[in-house]
Each structure stands twice: as C-alpha cells, then as structure tokens.
Amino acid sequence: MERRIGTASILAILGLTSGCINVRAPDKPIEINLNIKIDANVVVALQKDAKDLIDKNPELFPE
User: Fold this and answer.
1) Separation of alpha carbons 54 and 62, rounded Å
2) Exposed, middle or buried, 10 (CB in 10 Å: 0-12/13-18/19+)?
C-alpha cells in the first residue's frame, strides 16, 4: 500500500514538472565574435633593432 502511494506521488510530481522543462535548439546560429589582430612586423623590427644594437656594441653583450 505504501509503495503504491510513493509511486503515485512520484508520477504526480513528474506530471506537474513535465511542462516546465523545455529543451530546443536556438532559432539563430550561435555567433562567436573574436576580434584578433596579429602583427608580425613588430617582432621582426624588434629583433632587427636588437641585432643592430649588439653588433654596434659588442663589449656590452659578451658571448
């Protein structure tokens, strides 16, 4: 008898909550906007400047 009451209670709770939960796909596609700018010239320019500095002042940078 108690088992029937427990089962009926669980079914009643599931019946009440079944309309509250909805899972559906979005209408529009998901858009991820990444604003990334990569500039390799800065690294190359710094490497060239550092090499020129070392070549002009070998006593400051011993090997």
Assistant:
1) 9
2) exposed
Tokens of 15: 């019946």
Under 8 Å CB-to-CB from 27, ≥6 apart: which residues?
none
Angle at 50 between CA 59 and CA 55, to 5 degrees: 40
Number of domains within the chain: 1
Range of the domain at 63: 38-63
pTM of the model: 0.30
Q: What is the pLDDT of residues 7-36, one digit of tens each?
A: 878 777 776 665 666 778 888 998 888 888
Q: What is the CA radius of gyration of the chain?
A: 35
